[in-house]
Amino acid sequence: MGQVTNRTKLKLAVLISGGGSNLQAIMDACNAPGYPAEVVLVFSNQLDAGGLDRARKAGIRAEAIAHKGYPGGREAYDTAVSTLIEQSGADLVVLAGYLRLVSESFVTRWQDRLINIHPSLLPSFKGLHVHQKALDAGVKFAGCTVHYVVPEVDSGPIIAQAVVPVLPGDDAGKLAQRILKQEHKIYPQVIRWIAEGRVSVDANAIVTVTDAKPAEISAINPVLDPG
Ligand code: GRF
Q: What is the dihedral of CA 202, 122, 222, 131, to 10 degrees?
């Protein structure tokens, strides 16, 4: 078996706005022997995002540009972000709690190389306040989704989902924590699949993961018996 070398690793640009616990999970995965990806850039639209410190501590390039008051608006801002990503040499752009809508031209620029994690089982509960929306709808299971990004918000081909139960006494915070734990498993797993060239999308926007093993599925979906 050939060892995965730095040269063959998939290069990731991770975009964040906040604490960056998903970023941390991805960086931790990248530190594991044989993991086929590495983070080459962390970018935030918030200058004080906690995730920037996490990146710097790990010796990873971390950049921030405040979106507020950026001259030229969203398009110009996203062009600046794209330039940074291009300079980093990233192969895949990973939105990890990047709480900012990206422009259509940004989506086009990174088409098929741009993924997002959303803390609901899409297509249910798009947008903000999704945990409260799930509780208000009375669903008995909730979860998270990793998907390719298309211009329409929280849409795009679904790569993987993880499911958690909604428990009696849950509030939005408790449910968010339970889902976040699954986010930390599902995102590194999806990045591995992409890095290994195992993810394909058909003409109907249905994603197939080649040779997905029951153990891989159950690792990100502990409530499901893979059968
Ligand atoms: C996660 O729940 C993610 O799904 C959502 O924002 C949150 C970010 O958390 N889009 P963190 O910054 O990764 O801790």
A: 160
